[in-house]
Write a structure and sequence with these properties.
heterodimer; A: alpha+beta; six-stranded antiparallel beta sheet; five-stranded mixed beta sheet; about 15% strand; B: alpha+beta; Thrombin, subunit H; 2 domains; elongated
């Protein structure tokens, strides 16, 4: 009968896996053991595991710090003769071992889902370079449009490239974190996905401007388009998590939602805290775009005056209130 | 040669005696009127110290003293925080009570208790003639009562509410002091200065009106009186503006803008035609009303500004042109100073508007805020940007402070229909 022993980290990541086909296994710090763990809190001969009548028995060899079994309600000190069950996690010193039998039940096979083929497409060098170039061009465009003076190509090139590098820091750091957590970094996939979504966010910004340009005050459409950028941010974080970390679907959604909330909620909080108690300046939306992007029809002066007259009643009411 | 010396000597002699005569006259006038001249002081009740000072003069035998509204404005708005005191030429102090104000002409009447009849200033019955010698009395910078000789130079042409242009130095602290002619009759009240011996006075007839109205009936509350005066003044002003001729004028190449043809609205212009490297050629016309009604040191009203700007792209595409154009209109602000306790925050509305003449298509923004102490009065701001030409733009903008709803809407309607492409 075979026994599988996994050395796992504190957050239950697999470090090493051993398979034994012998009746007695020794675990400890010195070099005669079958599993040698260089943890100073473990005794030279800490435990031994024996096969007795078809059961594996765990014996603590009078260790200094003891041996504990992980149970549903916390840790429990091992008896002198603990019968091992499939999936038991035991703690010795500051290390953990997971014990599995060969008939241990494994999760069903996951089919490749559409995301994987999408991610594969995005990490392809051609798509990746295309999306990074598109990002740089868009960044250059923004610099060009915002500058009040005429700029030549090199004056635009430098800020556009630095902005691209700046944005590349996000996928790079996600890859770094997943590498540190002993996952495959998959930096190309992270870059590919992130830049595609960054580009989509630019586009949603442009769409937001067009909608704001065409709509009247207090219209719901600009708000709906703003939701689009929230959704895009969520997708970005979800895909970052999907590529970089193995986690349950539920946990991935929770993570993506929290980062999105942190980003937009933080932005809102910063703006809210900056808001003065009394603002002597009017707040209005002054989005202007070229006439070809104008699709909404204009109202008459009468209608505008009629709408404006309601503002007087509104502010007059407010003036009385205080 | 000798003849020349004689002539020169005679001239110097004449000048000298002339000057000493004026001095004598001033001294005589001053001594005669001293007992009816006061320093008006606002005392902060909590600290017991004076928080602002000005001058005042008695205009009736029973103790009515005239001064500027802005000298006692803090008391008018916060009577619980201050008290008003006078200081006469004997150094005696006493309590004053606020009776009536004219916020538009910056005048106020206060009363001191008198036991027996007192001498007082006579108000003139006629306006002075141009070049007439006048004497301004007051207490500049708390330095003691002085008399400043000067000249009457007519009424200031550009102001909607009349002001006398007085050539003579008026300093702060002299506000509220009388200006008299040689017969010792009051022809004006010190109110403002623009430095270099240019001073402004409120004409005596405004004070006569205020005093006569006060004799008929004293106001119920000062705040209500102010609200009525502000409302009446804006009605008078806007009726004049709305019924006067609006002259269409070309700005830039093909924009038509209205120029309101009244003397109290003055226009200035500028353009960047000399800047060869500019990406956008622009021409600006600014018109403004030279009025600023003082309510408190942080609240002014009654002003009006109008601005037109044309822009045309030189060597840039439509996208960039509109991007830079948008930056021009993002930060419009109010034309008058006002704080949290005076007004609400602005409420705005924007829409795409095509006037009935179909000659322009605009993105128009209208904002308004209401006055908290004077119900029915508002500040308004209008900003409009043309969005129908690829490489040309016309911005039209105005702000009006202290206007009622009907007038604001009528003005906006007329203004919107008057701005167009040619």
């Amino acid at each position: 009968m075979e026994l599988i022993i996994e050395e796992i980290s504190r957050n239950q990541k697999l470090l090493h896996r051993h398979k034994f086909n012998k009746p007695i296994i020794h675990v400890g710090r010195d070099y005669h053991n079958d599993i040698i763990i260089s943890d100073p809190h473990i005794c030279p001969s800490h435990i031994s595991i024996n096969l007795v009548n078809g059961d594996w028995l765990l014996t603590d060899n009078y260790s200094v710090n003891g041996t504990f079994i992980e149970t549903d309600n916390g840790k429990e000190q091992a008896d002198s003769q603990h019968i091992i069950r499939d999936g038991d996690i035991i703690s010795l010193g500051k290390s953990q071992l997971r014990l599995l039998f060969t008939d241990h039940h494994v999760a069903p096979t996951q089919a490749f889902n559409p995301f994987d083929s999408f991610i594969d497409l995005m990490r392809h060098p051609v798509t990746l370079s295309l999306s990074i170039s598109l990002f740089s061009i868009l960044a250059g465009m923004i610099f060009y449009l915002n500058s009040p003076i005429d700029l030549n190509f090199s004056q635009l090139f430098v800020p556009a490239i630095s902005m691209t590098f700046g944005f590349a820091l996000w996928p790079a750091s996600v890859a770094l974190v997943s590498h540190l957590q002993k996952h495959d970094p998959r930096i190309m996939a992270q870059l590919g996905i992130s830049f595609v979504l960054f580009n989509l966010m630019w586009l949603s910004n442009i769409l937001e401007s067009i909608v704001a340009f065409n709509s009247v005050s207090h219209s719901i459409y600009p708000l709906l388009v703003m939701l689009l950028s929230v959704v895009l941010a969520f997708c970005l974080f979800w895909l970052n998590g999907y590529i970089g970390f193995h986690m349950t679907a539920r946990r991935r959604i929770v993570m993506a939602v929290s980062i999105t909330t942190l980003l937009f909620g933080g932005d809102y909080l910063v703006n809210y805290s900056k808001k003065p108690e009394f603002n002597p300046r009017p707040q209005y939306n002054a989005t202007l775009m070229m006439p070809t992007l104008l699709v909404a029809s204009s109202v008459s002066v009468d209608k505008f005056i009629d709408d404006a007259s309601k503002l007087f009643d509104k502010t007059a009411k407010e003036a009385v209130k205080q | 040669m000798t003849r020349f010396f004689t002539l020169a000597f005679t001239l110097v002699f004449i000048l000298f005696t002339g000057a000493s005569y004026a001095q004598e006259q001033a001294e005589q006038l001053f001594n005669q009127l001293k007992p009816s001249l006061y320093q008006i002081r606002l005392i902060d009740k909590a600290s017991g110290e004076k928080s602002s000072i000005g001058s005042g003069f008695q205009i009736s035998t029973d103790g009515i003293i005239a001064t500027n509204y802005h000298v006692i404005s803090s008391f008018a708005l916060h009577p619980e925080k201050y008290r008003i005191e006078y200081l006469n030429n004997q150094g005696d102090k006493g309590k004053l009570t606020l009776q009536s104000v004219d916020v538009i002409n910056d005048l106020a009447l206060v009363r001191r208790d008198v036991k027996q009849n007192m001498p007082f200033f006579q108000l003139s019955t006629a306006a002075p003639h141009k070049g007439e010698k006048l004497f301004s009395l007051g207490n500049p910078h708390d330095l003691g009562m002085i008399v400043v000789p000067g000249t009457y130079n007519g009424l200031k042409k550009e102001s909607f509410n009349e002001r006398i242009h007085f050539t003579g130095s008026i300093n702060s602290g002299m506000s509220g002091g009388p200006v008299i002619n040689k017969q010792a009759e009051v022809v004006g009240v010190n109110v403002a200065t623009s430095g270099n011996s240019i001073g402004f006075l409120v004409p005596h007839d405004k004070l006569v009106n205020l005093y006569n109205t006060f004799l008929q009936a004293s106001p119920k509350t000062i705040k209500q009186q102010m609200a009525e005066q502000l409302t009446a003044n804006q009605s008078k002003l806007m009726t004049k503006i709305l019924t006067s001729h609006w002259q269409a004028k070309t700005l830039g190449n093909n924009a038509l803008i209205p120029i309101i043809n009244v003397p109290f609205i003055r226009c200035w212009g500028n353009s960047n035609a000399d800047k060869t490297d500019a990406l956008i050629l622009s021409a600006v016309a600014n018109c403004s009303l030279d009025e600023n009604t003082y309510i408190s040191s942080h609240f002014f009203t009654g002003s009006m500004e109008i601005e037109f700007r044309t822009m045309s792209a030189k060597d840039i595409g439509t996208t960039k042109f509109y991007h830079l154009y948008q930056q021009q209109i993002t930060r419009a602000g109010s034309g008058n100073r006002a704080g949290k306790e005076d007004v609400t925050e602005y409420q705005c509305r924007h829409d795409l508007v095509r006037p009935n003449n179909k000659a322009i298509n605009n993105k128009s923004i209208f904002c308004t805020r209401a006055y908290k102490k004077f119900p029915g009065l508002f500040d308004v701001l209008y900003l409009s940007a043309s969005i129908d030409k690829d490489k040309q733009a016309l911005v039209s903008h105005f702000t009006i402070a202290g206007i009622n709803k009907e007038n604001a809407l009528s003005f906006t309607r007329k203004f919107m229909e008057a701005v167009r492409w040619n």
